[in-house]
Amino acid sequence: MTAAAISVGLVEDDPGTQERLRSALRRAAQLRLAYAGSTVAQTVQWLRSNSVDVLLVDLGLPDGSGLEVIRQCRALCPATEIMVITMFGDEANMMRAFEAGARGYLLKDGTEDDLAEHVLSLKAGGSPMTPIIARQLLARLSPSPSSPKLPGNSAALTGREREILATLARGFTYAEAAEIMNIAPSTVQSHVKNIYSKLAVHSKTEAIFEARQLGIL
Amino acid sequence: MKAWKALAGGWCCVLAALPCGWAHAQDRIHTLRVAQAVLEPEGAAPWAGEVSLPHLWDKAYPGRAGRASYRLELPPVPSDGSLWGLYFPRAGNQVEMFLNGDLIAHQGVLGDTRHDATKSPLWVPVPARLLSSTTPTVLEVRLAAQPVRWGGLAAPQFGPEAELLPQYRERYIWRQWGAVAVVFALALTGVIAAGLWYLNREPVYGYFALCAPFGVVRFGDRLWDVQPLGWPLWGAVVAFSLIAHGLLVMRFSLALVGRDDAVVRRGFWGLLAVESALVGGAFGLGQPVAWTAAVALLFVPAFWTYAVAGREALGSRQADAIALCLASFIPVGAGLYDFLEIRVATESVGRSSYFPVAMMLFVLLMGWLILSRYARQSSAYQRLSSSLDEKVRQRERELEVSYALLQQEHAQHAALQERQRIMRDIHDGVGAQLVGLLSLIGKGRSSHAQLREHANAALDELRMAVDAMQPVDGDLTTVLATLRYRLQPRLAATGIQVDWQVQELPTLESLTPHLVLQIQRILLEAFTNVLRHAQASTVRVSARHEAGPSRPPHLVLEIADNGVGMNDPDRMQGGQGLASMRARAQAIGALLEITSAPGQGTSVRVALPVSRAPVQPAPPAPAPASPATPLT
ipTM for the complex? Predict the structure, then answer.
């Protein structure tokens, strides 16, 4: 099993949280702590010559935002799955993290024992989605008549994806959604991942579109 | 008063200077000043005798019509073949001329009152063969006179045509063309004033427009030898026209200098009535004195008007008043002179009146004043309108600024309110939980599990406060879904199945963060009770929109378990929690119902009215600077 162990990087500036996460990782047999850092610069520097399977990132770092780490990691090691360590999983922070390229998050709620489960779940293709984020994505990624020139048709949601988001926004779990829509739970998960990818594409095209509008590009 | 004296002095000089220009000294021209007259007034005894010319019928027989015959002697003339003629400055009202008993000229038919020969001077050429070179030749002038018509005979002049005709022509031109000119000037300026009045409805234009036709009748009368009406009716019409013309010119002048008040109005109508009565007396009863009085009376308002204009001119240097004073100097003076010379002294019956010519100048000047006034007004309007535009723009700018300030204040107020709400929520929620936790730790008797539960509750409270601040846009479904998302791991851990029956709900406009937090707290309490006490295997969560014909629409949230239930929900363990649920429900205007029976499970039902005022209305009154309740 050690050969197949999943390498995990940890970026967290709070020593207490870092220590708890470290010990949780030590307890998980399938997980291997490959890196632990507490600043943006240090982590980005490390990522230039190394890579991990899963990177856990706190958003509030002493020398900058964890979002910067996520972006850099996305560019340097596209295969790495990124999880955000957050207190609340609130919409504003999560949305930006998902835009930057994160695919999951870990709540700092004292359930660090579940860390391994979360990481494995993410690695297996599952990303969490809160109803509020589902609702926001439904509004953001729906083809809007006001900006038909956006070349982001690839970023627009399919009918199925919208159905999934609407169901999740109403409070149903992945399993219930799969049952309602008569599909496998893993299909729901892959749909969710696709939706997050579209968010990243969408935010990029939006940025390009805005830049063009402003005459920067 | 000084100015008044100066003006009066000016008049005297002008009046004294006027006659000098017409002093002629021709030795071949004979002015016939004496006549043998036979006067036949109606209703009185005829009279015969010598009279000196000019002879004024109305003076000799006031109020009577009659006929007169004047015999004059023309001196012998040398028979050198030159042409001779007679120049009558004034003769009438109808007149026939006989030389040696032969009719040589006539104006009108004696007694035909529609004709008035006195209006224009007469030139009668005298055939040389009828004149003697040795003896005087007898000229007989017969005339018919009507009362108050200023008939009679002015001293005629006899002389060679070459010398006398130019005098006649000069007089004719003065008299006739003067009338033509003033009629033309009045018509022109009257039309202009009427047009301006039509466009502007300002009294000053109206008075002038109204005075013009009366003046046209008065001065135009001279141009018609044959009148449309008989005497004395026509005489009354013309006389009234002069009165009305004069009074309206004065009223116009007063209005021009800004005096158009009640005094002026009353004076105008009073004078018009008195003057009309005098005209009626003069022409109806044949009293020339009445007409003289009427004309004299006209000078009273004229001088008053002049004084008012003079005061304005000197006092406030008003341009219109100065122009008016200068312009009316001539007609007032000329009128006064005419009146004194012709009507009172009656010495110069043959002289032309200067008034019409003076009036023409005055009228033209007034026309110019009116036009300049109009031009001033329109440019003033233009300035006013442009300054109004500027004011409006400035006002708009000010409004924008104050609107921005108001917006800013609103934003600050809203932010302050929100901060206070968050403080209250922290205080009531996580604050209270942490204080409770501290006291548990202080007592030192609590188990690890109890402390953990308490800490978790504090964390839950904090999460809910954060969730309550997330954007849900009035969607209660999202609130419920989020709560479930938070609780799902715990419910799953205890093995309780969730039967999620949440429908799409209508948008709730009043769904403020405060309301969201209260609903979350109620529902969390309900879930906690299920987890702690119910021993249930399934909990059904349903949310639906209910609206009946008798009750307003409600959003109904229900949490029902299939657990052990209880006898009396209010007395069950954890009654404190139920009481706080009720209090919270009441605070947000919702209805809380708990139904339970042993073995039947428990159901908590919250009915929230759809249309209602926000729970936390933002009062516009200044908010307290510090939280209402201090943190303990």
Answer: 0.84
